[in-house]
């Protein structure tokens, strides 16, 4: 039986409401979205605003961050972030060249892996004037690996006996998208969540120099238009407000609660947008490059964090 758009909306609204309660943890929200997608129960009218919901949730979560701890985390994670971004971009270009994958697709996958998944791909895509199928391939690879990481990383973290601090840094460096980083951190623990979110969002600032560098290296007189990550600036502003306005702590606590619930909803919507069709259309070469970069990034960062 073919479901009408109205019925699809009703089916999707139920888990969305559950996301606002304590019934849906981050991992279950994503898994439920994937299950509904695979069952053919999706509605683009609900999922088309996922990226906006994610960004608003991140901004609201900034009200619950500790400015002092953020400065400590950014200082400790800066070197690892810088090295991993450069390493992933260069390695990705080499792998793409060896496999004869389209250059734009290679750049997008490498950018998404190196920085912050879909946000980096969305920012770099207009700079290199990527075609729609190239952007879709890169997003499909990143989103599918994100879904796997949300379950795999907490399991590996517990198996290896990682502290919450170590896991937070590892998740921020090795997992592509901010949503999956936050989800994995939330599953692992509150301290892991705080560090993972902070380091990942600081890492996302690399969108700016990367986009500028790619624009400068593009051939021709016309440069691509750079999409600035405005939500990161608002996230920073929220952190500063919570630091300088301690009398508003109760209000900030409420805003942080909405941010966390918004993140769970975003995870559900992201899961509902994943399909077998996207995975098939992405092509095996795209997945080889994406998985190779993912394994190299995760393995190298884990080694450095556990041994240095």
Assign the structural class, choosing from mainly alpha, mainly beta, alpha/beta, alpha+beta, or little secondary structure: mainly alpha
What's the assembly state of these chains?
single chain
Strand count, sense and closure of the main sheet? none
Q: Tell me the number of helical segments per DSSP (H or I, 4 or more residues long).
A: 16
Description:
The chain is mainly alpha-helical. Helices cover 80% and strands 0% of the residues. It contains 16 helices and no strands. Helix 5 (67-99) packs across helix 16, helix 6 packs parallel to helix 8 and helix 6 (103-114) runs parallel beside helix 16 (284-307). The radius of gyration is 19 Å and the shape is globular.
Which properties best describe this structure?
16 helices, 308 residues, mainly alpha
Short description, anyone?
It contains 16 helices and no strands.
SSE topology sketch:
Blueprint: H1 5-19, H2 26-38, H3 44-47, H4 50-61, H5 67-99, H6 103-114, H7 118-128, H8 132-159, H9 164-174, H10 178-188, H11 190-204, H12 207-217, H13 230-244, H14 249-272, H15 276-282, H16 284-307
Helix pairs in contact: 2-14, 4-13, 4-14, 5-6, 5-11, 5-16, 6-7, 6-8, 6-16, 7-8, 7-12, 8-10, 8-15, 8-16, 9-10, 9-11, 9-16, 10-11, 10-14
């Amino acid at each position: 039986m073919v479901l009408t758009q109205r019925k699809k909306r009703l089916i999707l609204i139920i888990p969305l409401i559950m996301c606002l309660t304590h019934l849906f943890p981050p991992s279950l929200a994503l898994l439920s979205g994937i299950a509904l997608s695979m069952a053919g129960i999706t509605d683009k009218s609900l999922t088309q605003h996922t990226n906006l919901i994610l960004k608003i949730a991140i901004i609201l979560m900034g009200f619950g961050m500790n400015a002092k701890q953020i400065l400590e985390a950014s200082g400790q994670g800066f070197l690892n972030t810088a090295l991993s971004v450069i390493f992933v971009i260069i390695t990705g270009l080499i792998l793409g060249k060896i496999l004869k994958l389209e250059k734009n697709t290679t750049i997008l996958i490498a950018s998404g892996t190196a920085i912050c998944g879909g946000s980096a791909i969305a920012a770099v895509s207009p700079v290199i004037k990527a075609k729609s199928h190239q952007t879709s391939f890169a997003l499909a690879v990143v989103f599918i690996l994100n879904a796997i990481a949300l379950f795999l990383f907490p399991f590996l973290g517990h198996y290896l006996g990682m502290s919450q601090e170590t896991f937070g840094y590892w998740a921020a460096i090795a997992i592509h998208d901010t949503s999956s980083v936050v989800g994995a951190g939330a599953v692992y623990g509150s301290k892991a969540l705080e560090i993972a979110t902070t380091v990942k969002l600081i890492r996302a600032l690399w969108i700016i120099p990367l986009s500028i560098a790619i624009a400068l290296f593009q051939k021709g007189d016309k440069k691509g238009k750079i999409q600035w990550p405005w939500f990161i600036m608002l996230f920073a502003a929220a952190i500063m407000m919570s630091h300088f306005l301690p009398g508003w702590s109760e209000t900030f606590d409420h805003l942080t609660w909405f941010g966390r619930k918004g993140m769970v909803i975003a995870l559900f919507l992201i899961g509902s947008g994943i399909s077998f069709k996207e995975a098939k259309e992405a092509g095996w070469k795209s997945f080889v490059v994406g998985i190779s970069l993912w394994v190299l990034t995760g393995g190298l960062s884990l080694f450095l964090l556990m041994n240095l």
